[in-house]
Amino acid sequence: MFSALGVGELVGHRALRYDQTRQSYRCLSIAHFVLRGCIHMRNSLVVLLAITICLTITSYPQAAEPKSMQHPRLYFTAADLPRLRKLRDSGMHAKIWANLTRSADWCRQQPPRTEWIPTLADDPQYENLYDRFYAAMHDMAIIEHLAFASVLSDPDDDPYFESAKAWLLAGSRVWKHEADNKPDASKAYAVLRVMKSLAVGYDLLYDQLTAAERQEVRDCLTAVCGAYFKFFQDPVAAGAGYNKHHGSVDAAPQGIVALALLGEVPAADAWLEQMIQKHVDYLLPHALTPSGTSDQTSNFWASTLHYRIFFMDALRRVTGRDLFREFPDSTPGRMALAAIAGRQPLQQIAQYNEANRNVLFGPSYGQLDYWSPVLVFLAREQQRPIYQYLAGWDESLGGLQRSRYITPTKKEELLFSFGGYVYLWYDPTIPAVVEPNLPRSFEFPEPEVNEAYLRDSYTAGDIVVGFKKGGLIVHAGGRPVLVDMLETNDVNKPAEPIEEMLVADDGRLAKIRCVGPKAAGIGEQKIELHRPGRLKIRRQATKPLTWWLAGKPAREGNTFSWPDGTTVTISTGTISNFDERGFVETKTHYAGMKYADPLPMVYPTVTVQPDQDLVEIEITSQTPPPEKTPTQLQEQK
């Protein structure tokens, strides 16, 4: 156990705790001096003074010990478990639990990994890099998902513990080899996530593991994270000059491991201090842009917040240090309000996701089921009903997220698990409603970002338009109806920002005006959203405009229409090509590696030739009937 000084200096590093500790030591020194005087002087008044000082020291507020040095402690304590388990049968928690356990049943059918994947020096298409990365993500997801399912189950009827333990120990045995695999930035991005999962599994399952099993997990964490502690001593690693997104994803897991091992592994104190400083000095002030997103892709806004929250939530619970309060702008939600455009169906209906299904400019893995855990936490932390409302659009909330990113030879599948966290973070006292006077137009003006969004309303199915460096995506009727095929959304080859961008909104009419990109033969563009339900696009162009769309619309002349009343009409320009299988969206790495995509998506494409260098398109949608909130739906059942 830590001394008061050790906790105050190494764990909390809170000024008050340190000052209290220092004053306590000062009082002890005075008392010691006076008592020595008592021995030599034998003066009754001095003795009385010494006793008074000792009593004062006893009652003086001491430096706070961590809130819990027992396990579990990262995200809840043993005292919380009875209450948490009772939630399984009520309200939204019951739905989350059903999704969580459905996925856990799949997880426990998967055999634990037995062989480590070593690093290959010759890797021209990065297949080895991604084999290792996806293997790490796959193992992390299953280890955490099973551990949460086990600890939240009835202890007298827990079908998940044996599988959870098997995966935890297998992960420790396999990934311990990373201790002898020289750390670098590309390895850290994957390896430290597995270490996080081992730390979380260790914390959750601690009471049910034997002493030898606990030691095995600790040995792995100590060996690997000890090596990365030395790696992070380079100021560049996860500091200025290091990739901001990678830095966030690297530092948070190392900090979580430290929190899980405090009081058990002496080195954990220094690891935690190092990761706190990485966050305080660089990541929290700089990893997101002033407008509240990532300077690489909006999807990294979500993943950056995932890892900030994982670490900061646990740090506050274990040590009392509240980085959310110290950095109140560190968890911005504007990007979610801007880019979320529709619902996420249950995984049984849509096992694999598609790009832009419900998050504009989001890759297939980065849709609402990837963003909704952040929304659930922000709803609780910031007391924001709108985040609760949008999270409720995810019918798969709590489930394991599978993806179409699977490596070609080893068939390593990219997985994500947020189910246990969502279950813990969901606060049923926050109503799932649209707040009054919410913004419906958004600008993210940094040159690296160069994005703008307009939305008709916060009703699922209404028009939402996204603009990025000249490219457009329009969502209407719950689907993408225009996805511009300009190359503006490749994180590996970022496009240049356009010369001008202006966003204006008077409530009835919202506009985006821009010029360019000139390299694509585009001059002035005007995007006008006439609320309710009508969008006009006017593009000056010397080259054809090609886009893909979802669903099976009926075509009549220059108009495409969907059964729900959504229409797309080309009012200026000539349709030169309509190909019902014009775009096959499959997964290919920028270096040329083709993923083993289990479900390539096929979409129609439309090509329009400008008429006197002008293309004009009008899109309309029928406003769906008012939605029932998840609470209303539950009451109806």
Descriptive terms for the model:
globular; 41% helix; 2 domains; single chain; Glycosyltransferase; 637 residues; alpha+beta
In summary, what is this structure?
This protein has 637 residues and is of the alpha+beta class.
Characterise the protein shown here.
This is Heparinase II N-terminal domain-containing protein. Pfam families: DUF4962. It comes from Symmachiella macrocystis. This protein folds into two domains: 78-117 and 134-425, Glycosyltransferase (Alpha/alpha barrel); 441-621, no CATH class. The strands form three sheets. It has an eight-stranded antiparallel β-sheet with strand order 3-4-5-6-7-12-17-16. Strands 8-9-10-11-18-15-14-13 form an eight-stranded antiparallel β-sheet, with no helix packed on it. A two-stranded antiparallel sheet has the order 1-2. The model is unreliable at 1-68 and 628-637 (pLDDT under 50). It contains 18 helices and 18 strands. It is 41% helix and 17% strand.
